C-alpha cells in the first residue's frame, strides 16, 4: 500500500485487529521510507443485485430507500430502530443468498412486506395498501382477513 504522506510504494503492517462484529479488519501500517504511521480499514464489498423497475429501468439497490419506506409505514408504531435494522439485514441476506444479479422491484416489495408483517401487522397493512394499489375496500378487507 502506498504511503499517504510521502507516496512511497512500500509499507509494513505493524498491527492487525478485527472489529467486535468481525466484519472489518483494522491495520496499523508504517512507511518504510518516512517512518510515519497510518491506519487502514478493510471490509468485504457486498454486491447486492440491481433492482429492475416496472418501467424496465435498472437501479442500484438502495437500503436507505427501503429503510425510509419501512419507517414511513411504521410511523407512530411501537417498533424500535433495532427491529427495523434487523429486518433490513434479513432482506439484504435474502438478496445475497438468492445469488441473483438483478431482481424485479415486485420481489423486493414482497420481501419488505414479509418483514413488516413479521414485526408489525398495522405497518404491513399500511405498506401493502399503498404497494398493491388497492382499487376498492373489498381488497383491503381481504388483506386484513388474511392476516
Describe the protein's architecture and organization:
Helix 3 (105-119) packs antiparallel against helix 4 (121-131). The chain starts with 10 loop residues before the first strand and ends with a helix. Strand 2 and strand 3 (37-43) form a beta hairpin. The protein is elongated, with a radius of gyration of 22 Å. The chain has 147 residues and is an alpha+beta fold. The chain has a three-stranded antiparallel sheet, with no helix packed on it. Strands 5-4-6 form a three-stranded mixed sheet. The mean pLDDT is 89. It has helices at residues 63-73, 81-98, 105-119, 121-131, 137-146, and strands at 11-18, 24-31, 37-43, 50-52, 58-59, 102-104. The chain has two domains: 11-43; 50-146.
Write the layout of secondary structure elements.
Layout lengths: L10 E8 L5 E8 L5 E7 L6 E3 L5 E2 L3 H11 L7 H18 L3 E3 H15 L1 H11 L5 H10 L1
Parallel strand pairs: 4-6
Antiparallel strand pairs: 1-2, 2-3, 4-5
Helix pairs in contact: 1-2, 1-4, 2-3, 3-4
Describe, in short, the structure shown.
The protein is of the alpha+beta class and 147 residues long. The chain contains five helices and six strands; from the N terminus they run E-E-E-E-E-H-H-E-H-H-H.
Features:
147 residues; alpha+beta; 2 domains; 3-stranded antiparallel sheet; 3-stranded mixed sheet; 5 helices
Amino acid at each position: 500500500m502506498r504511503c499517504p504522506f510521502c507516496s512511497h510504494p512500500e509499507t509494513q503492517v505493524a498491527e492487525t485487529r478485527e472489529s467486535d462484529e468481525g466484519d472489518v479488519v483494522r491495520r496499523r501500517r508504517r512507511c518504510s521510507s518516512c517512518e510515519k504511521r497510518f491506519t487502514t480499514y478493510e471490509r468485504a464489498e457486498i454486491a447486492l443485485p440491481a433492482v429492475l423497475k416496472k418501467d424496465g429501468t435498472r437501479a442500484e439497490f438502495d437500503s436507505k430507500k427501503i429503510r425510509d419506506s419501512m419507517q414511513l409505514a411504521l410511523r407512530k408504531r411501537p417498533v424500535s430502530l433495532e427491529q427495523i435494522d434487523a429486518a433490513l439485514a434479513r432482506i439484504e441476506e435474502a438478496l445475497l443468498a438468492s445469488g441473483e444479479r438483478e431482481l424485479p422491484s415486485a420481489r423486493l416489495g414482497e420481501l419488505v412486506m414479509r418483514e413488516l408483517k413479521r414485526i408489525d401487522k398495522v405497518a404491513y397493512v399500511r405498506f401493502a395498501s399503498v404497494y398493491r394499489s388497492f382499487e376498492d375496500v373489498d381488497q383491503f378487507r381481504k388483506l386484513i382477513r388474511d392476516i
